[in-house]
Amino acid sequence: MTVEFKTEEMVINMGPHHPSTHGVLRLIVTLDGEIIKKVEPVIGYLHRSIERLAQDRNYFQYLPVVDRVDYISIIAAEWPLVLAVEKIGGIEVPERAEYIRVITAELTRIMSHLFYLGTFLLDLGATTVIMYALREREKIIDLMEELTGQRMMFNYFRYGGVNADVPEGWLSKVDEFCDYFVKMIDEYEILINKNPIFLSRVENIGIIPKEMIVEYGACGPIMRASGIKYDVRRDDPYSIYDRFDFDIPVGRKGDTLDRYLVRMQEMRESVKIIKQAVKQIPSGPCLKKKLAFSFKIPAGEAYCQVEAPRGNMGVYLISNGTNIPARVKYRTPSYANMQILPEVLKGTFLSDIMAIFGSFDVILPEVDR
After folding, report:
1. Tell me, what DSSP letter sits at residue 161?
2. Residue 218 — φ and ψ, nearest 5°?
3. What are the structural domains, with CATH classification, of the chain?
4. What confidence tens digit (pLDDT) does each residue in 13-71 have?
5. Rounded to whole angstroms, how far apart are CA atoms 99 and 4?
6. Which has the closest alpha carbon to 83: 103, 65, 63, 67?
7. What is residue 123's predicted lDDT score, i.e. its pLDDT?
8. What is the largest CA-CA distance in the chain?
9. Quick one: DSSP state of residue 350?
């Protein structure tokens, strides 16, 4: 006798106040038992019109606003905007300022990956790692506070350079931190990499094929974890990244484990870049010319991008020749990467949602601009 079991689909809400959605994201999840049949992300709860605000402020007034695009890696949000203004305006950047930009960008990349590491493991139920990650992140915040006066919204980059030179002894502190931090990464990996509970939650879960990455335009560690060796710093170089020796980590399967491993290796590569920059940095000014508060750039347009912690962060800027941008459009990696989430979650278990979504390292202000 054959017994047939029939199940009914159930629709549940995850968010917008779920503690593991990393912000005000709502997921409408359709389930057949424990199997996910469909996921519909609902965005827009956090929209703050950051791009529209550019049209009511001059270039200097707008620069502090963009720190809020990515509050975890602030430098990555500032850099493409200043690059676009410098490109249209023909503004030169002193060599010393370029080195300082690279050092601060890589420090904040490590900050961002540490925040990912702690919250990702917390999503999986591991409460220890976030204490380790925040311990090291706090050291970077202390360095950035000494440099910029701020612990979060740094507002440090300027059109044509940086706000101020590094304090005396600051570069030595950065170098010492790098030596210390490499040992801490070893400590994290001893704690995590062979943990059977962790591996059972991430291995062969949420596999993203290369073809899907290309089709959806996903970028950053998600793309590299699927085996695509692309990094803006190497393949579309900006600033002085072509002067440094560093590797681009890639994964083999494109699963949740690979996305974790790629980011861990990326922190090691950031340390390599910082140590080279500290060693090579020349003397000289950090701002070639101090621009007037209401400076103007010629009419024109430009698109400039950088390799942010989550992928390609770009700015498309249109200037009409006045001191106020005609249009600013951000291309943020979290927005591009989250489009792939419904496809990746389809057919997985309900319990896998936060493991897979956590491995995407989505920052909601990048999505709801």
Report:
1. E
2. -70, 160
3. 1-47 (no CATH), 74-79+91-293+348-361 (1.10.645.10)
4. 887 776 666 668 889 999 998 999 999 999 888 777 899 999 999 999 999 999 989 88
5. 67
6. 63
7. 87
8. 86
9. G
